[in-house]
Amino acid sequence: MKLKVYADRLSQPSRAVLIFCKINGIDFEEFKVDLSKRQHLSPEFKEINPMAQVPAIVDGRFKLFESHAILIYLACAFPGVADHWYPADLFRRAKINSVLDWHHSNLRRGSATFVLNTVLAPALGLQKNPQAAAEAEKILYASFARIESFWLQGKGRFLLGGLQPSIADLSLVCEIMQLEVLDEKDRNRILGPHKKVMQWVEDTKNATKPHFDEMHAVLFRAKERFQKQRLMEANSDGETSQKSSLRSKM
Amino acid sequence: MKLKVYADRLSQPSRAVLIFCKINGIDFEEFKVDLSKRQHLSPEFKEINPMAQVPAIVDGRFKLFESHAILIYLACAFPGVADHWYPADLFRRAKINSVLDWHHSNLRRGSATFVLNTVLAPALGLQKNPQAAAEAEKILYASFARIESFWLQGKGRFLLGGLQPSIADLSLVCEIMQLEVLDEKDRNRILGPHKKVMQWVEDTKNATKPHFDEMHAVLFRAKERFQKQRLMEANSDGETSQKSSLRSKM
């Protein structure tokens, strides 16, 4: 029976799992759980993952959620997966686990909170929290600095000095790609100064071609929609301020 | 060469690692990194862990931080560790990884943010953020509900229906113990309704005797200090309000 992957390509951990399956030739079926239609909250999906989050997998009778746990499981359960994704070596594996744990409270936390409180909240009909966004920006900026000064130190082009990517590269880079939906000036301010991070994103993208671009296509379409929306809001604000400036002249 | 564990017993992940070493008879040396004296920020400690956080270990030439990664490493690297802590079975191991990942963005996030913005901030000379505390309380309460309705479902007394504890039980229970430093009425409001969680904490404590109590002794002393401090503040507030009420009568 084929592996089932429940995912929404607009979610960064979903993309990481999908790219991993594709590049390792894992035979799987993708089931879209449309977050914008709140399908993750449906009773059917909660049977798969009671926490109502994507991604989740079903492998025969075995159900699993949390993307890092899924990536580790897939790397260990499917014999065709190359060792560099999650090395059998105890020490290298421990270091990858360390990056993945660090990700949760640093890059992931900063990125998810910043995107929510800038771009996503209005789209979801929620109130933005500017203080939360400001704090998240600090966490995000500090995370990039740490990636540059620590995790990307070493011989190779990948995390922990790897010559080839691991599941940690995939998970963290998919997280960073989520920043594509931001206003360009926000994205440039936070990511721009971190050239080494940008190069590593590019390297990971190239190492996982053509699946990386395929799985991110939907994100780039979302980016365009958000850009158009911002433009329309700016124009309507312009008109409003023109009108109010006219009003003040009257 | 003995394993070196860098820890402060007032930190919940430090205690999880120390209890794990003790109960599994791992020969180790504990190096105290006193967080209240900001020793984690010293150049010496940053040589061990550039992220300046406890716990961290040094095993021969190998350095590692992030408590979940450390627990997994120790369970795999030391042959005397019983299988139930981190089973070799792929499926059970994957489920434990899933709990540990979930912990980061749920229980850990709620607990750390709530304790910081109620008890710790004043002690550290920082400003409390009541909005952050209120949001953290929601996350914490929801996390307990999830532990009861999902993670503690099953035959055994431990997470995932285990008959004996795993590293996930140890990590999550040490996190919950941190709530001991809270004002009793806060702790009872959040933890009180979750009887199953409280029983599981008790079961984990009993399964890791006497090391659990030994490693938590310092937390109970901190609890007493915080209680005294609150009492003094309440008294001085009482005096202030008496004085001001006297003043208003004058």
TrEMBL record, chains A, B:
Classification via Pfam families: GST_C_2 (PF13410), GST_N (PF02798)
Regions of compositional bias (Polar residues) in chain numbering: 237-250
CDD domains: GST_C_Theta (cd03183), GST_N_Theta (cd03050)
Gene Ontology MF, one: glutathione transferase activity
Residues covered by the GST C-terminal domain: 89-231
Reaction(s) the record says it catalyses: RX + glutathione = an S-substituted glutathione + a halide anion + H(+)
Keywords linked to the UniProt accession: Detoxification, Transferase
Protein name: glutathione transferase
Species in which this protein is naturally found: Ilex paraguariensis (yerba mate)
UniProt lineage: Eukaryota, Viridiplantae, Streptophyta, Embryophyta, Tracheophyta
